[in-house]
Structures are given as structure tokens and as C-alpha cells.
Design a protein that fits this description.
By secondary structure, this protein is an alpha+beta fold. The chain has helices at about 5-15, 25-35, 45-60; strands at about 65-70, 75-85, 90-95, 95-100, 105-110. Helices cover about 30% and strands about 30% of the residues.
Length: about 110
């Protein structure tokens, strides 16, 4: 190695010291993934409400269901086993996710 190469290496290493430090690695990427478009809740027809009402009454604890529901800013779809259903409080719990029955727009009972 020549003297010029050694000096170049020292400058290169020194430049690394002054590079910006990302203390929260992956944070910028995570923020970009979390940027979502806010969607207004759908207005369902009377027929849609009747279909949902029938399906809600068919749901039983321990059954596998797929539910699409409005969660404040957008719609989410979850498939899982029903842990609890309470028609008085209008709550459905799939595994650990609690869903208000008024927020549901789609239900499919899995066989």
C-alpha cells in the first residue's frame, strides 16, 4: 500500500464518522407503510342489513368466520375463530380482536 492509498483510506473512514446516524433503524420505512388513505364508511342498503343480521345470528362461539369491518379510518378484513359474541352489547370477538357489530360490512361463515 502506498502512502496515497493509506491517506485515502483514512479520509474514507473519517467520512463515515460524519454520516447521518439513523438511531431508529427501519422507522422511516415503517412510517411510510403506515400512511394510509382515509376511507369513509360505506352506507349499506336495507337488503345488506338483513343479510348481515341473518349471518350474525348464525355465528356461534368456536366457529371460523371472515369479517370485514370499519376501523376508524379504513376497512379491515379478519379471519379467525369466534371467541365471544354478545348481541346485547353488540360485540363480536374474533380471537383477541373486538368488533362492534355496527361496524361490520361483510360476514362469511367458514365451514
Amino acid at each position: 500500500m502506498t502512502l496515497d492509498e493509506i491517506q485515502f483510506k483514512k479520509k474514507e473512514n473519517r467520512a463515515q464518522i460524519f454520516q447521518s446516524f439513523d438511531s431508529l433503524k427501519g422507522f422511516k420505512e415503517m412510517i411510510q407503510e403506515c400512511e394510509v388513505e382515509i376511507i369513509s364508511p360505506r352506507i349499506l342498503s336495507q337488503d345488506d342489513y338483513e343479510i348481515l343480521n341473518e349471518r350474525v345470528h348464525e355465528i356461534q362461539k368456536g366457529k371460523l368466520v371472515t369479517v370485514e369491518y370499519y376501523d376508524r379510518i379504513n376497512y379491515k378484513r379478519i379471519t379467525g375463530v369466534v371467541s365471544k359474541i354478545n348481541l346485547d352489547t353488540q360485540m363480536l370477538q374474533i380471537v383477541k380482536t373486538k368488533i362492534n357489530l355496527k361496524q361490520i360490512s361483510y360476514i362469511q361463515l367458514e365451514e
